[in-house]
Input
Amino acid sequence: MSMEETGSTVNIPEIYGSLVFDDRVMRERLPKDVYRAVRKTIKDGSHLELDVANTVAAVMKNWAIEHGATHFTHWFQPLTGLTAEKHDSFISPTGDGGVVLDFSGKELVKGEPDASSFPSGGLRATFEARGYTAWDPSSPAFIKDGTLYIPTAFCSYGGEALDKKTPLLRSMEAISKSAVRVLHLLGNEEVTHVDTTIGSEQEYFLIDKDLYKQRKDLLLCGRTLIGAPAPKGQEMEDHYFGVLKPKVAEYMHDLDQELWKLGVPAKTKHNEVAPSQHELAPVFETANVAVDHNQLTMEMMKKVADKHNYACLLHEKPFEGVNGSGKHNNWSISTNTGVNLLDPGATPAENIQFLVFLMAVISAVDEYADLLRVSVATAGNDHRLGANEAPPAIISIFVGDELEGVLKSIDDGTAFVSQGKTKLGMGAAVLPHITRDSTDRNRTSPFAFTGNKFEFRSVGSALSVADPNIVLNTAVAEYLDRIYDRLKDVPKESFDTELKKLLKELLDEHKRVLFNGDGYSEEWVKEAERRGLYNLKSLPDAMPHLVSEHSVDLFTKHKVFTKSELESRYEIFLENYSKTIHIESLTMQEMVRKDFTSGLLSYEKALTDEMIGKKSLLPGAKCKLESDTLGTLETESEAIDASLSKLHDDTKEAERDGDALHTARYYHDTILADMTELRSHVDTAEAMIPECYLPYPTYGEMLFSLR
Ligand code: ADP
Ligand code: MG
Output
């Protein structure tokens, strides 16, 4: 794209959603009764009759063909965390040498991909290779690269979920059911449905594509496994919100357009903390659609990057020593009457409703903190969560001073003085309208209240946002149920008193999770331990919690996961962790043995030749610089040789068919430690070798080459 094009006006309303079979298209093209039936299915999740599906399919096909599509695919989200697709063309031979273009209701609502190569964690034996994909009408179909994409859920022959969408939809139902009951109890009778809403701020790195291609670690693992730090990192804090470089701005412009066409509401873009790191935030949407749109966003980021001669890195920790990338999961609950339940509101009635939902969230996050930690555990994200970087592995909640004051007044019955200087007593159930500005920023908190929503910051940049939201929705549903059960039979006259008593009890029990201080500090680690909070540093530490009785009880009660679905996920996540580190180990060994060593040897040879040459010309020359450099390189070479052998032998030892947890622990304790040791020597040596001897680009080149 040229600069002229970038500068030219874009008719955003015209391109926005132009490749989406959205409500506008359906209203315009579907017969009225069919449109109504589809709307009902979307709203209530009711069953869609086959004749209705047939009509929708025919209309969808014609629309898709008009927009250049030749194929359709059921688009689903298997447990790899990525998306999957298998394209079928619309053609149907007529028998006389010709074809017609066909797409039936049956093809729209159900697909039967061979599921045997997707992770199932033992849920599906290979002889039962069949899996089903089922149309999810609540997420609109769209066209990409000449194919009609139909968002679907993916399950096994026996009906067990093999994907991330199915449990997400189940958890959305669970929280809706529980929230509606509580709202009715509080006198808010019009609400019949609530949706959880998500806005996920996506961080990413861009680097020059040619540089990217020269690094096996980036190509195969998505992160650098070796590399001495550049003389400059992020210490100057000059990149955050900095001026966009012209070529990067062109990329972002192009990305926005592609996303808008797909109906993804890309809204904010800026430079992030680390050099070459950026962020894109969308306008929030219903959880299910937001998850799909985040997957599309990640895909488009990579695709558009390629066009602009960049590589987009979504790994949580592509570079050591500079910030990694996360995905802030902004989460709230909104009613079908258009009310955000986490907005403090302006009136007393809204206040009490807000406090009930606030306490449900605080309690849920405290009790199920371990499951939230599990939901963001991957080999990649562990580099952020376990390390000294945003945010820590300990899950705590930041509510800000104002809300902390409100909670304190619930706790001790004292009057609350707002920053607006109004004195308010909890007795009157009054709460000032908490404006977004009065909640201060706390960048170190993993779970922060930001005015009218919570922001879960532990999500990794490469992850599907489905998992954390499944846990959040279900855990909050559980606490809403407990609140309902406690209050449902309380007579009207004592309702207020009982409700306040309950809020105080919940606060007493769960206030240990509230923390407004510095989440990175050593003191917090100790304090959290005193408070009995989890500090699950790595995936192998966290994963057993997924199959604990506590977890099984929660998820089965709310019909989000069956026990075997949980067990299968447990196996898959552990295996995935071990496999990831295994590949990293092999890649690192190859890169050190071949690429790094060739650079090292040629530099050593150059130094030696230089010394020989110098001494023949100047017999008395000491060649101190050369010999000191050679000496240090020799010391490091020996250490590299030893640690490379150790990594090699230990990786061979790894028992990949044994118990999944045991294996994952081994990869964590032994292989990762070996890799760290090897890396430290390689990096020391690399820092002494001139760039021209290295067959791969250095940190300095990769991080500071964007224009
Ligand atoms: P902040 O400055 O606190 O990061 P922004 O307004 O920039 O807040 O929003 C950050 C993200 O939060 C955006 O993706 C936005 O759409 C999302 N967001 C805002 N309100 C809600 C809500 N009610 N539910 C879910 N996400 C929300
Ligand atoms: Mg934010």
Q: What stands out?
A: The mean pLDDT is 91. The CA atoms of residues 646 and 674 lie 7 Å apart.
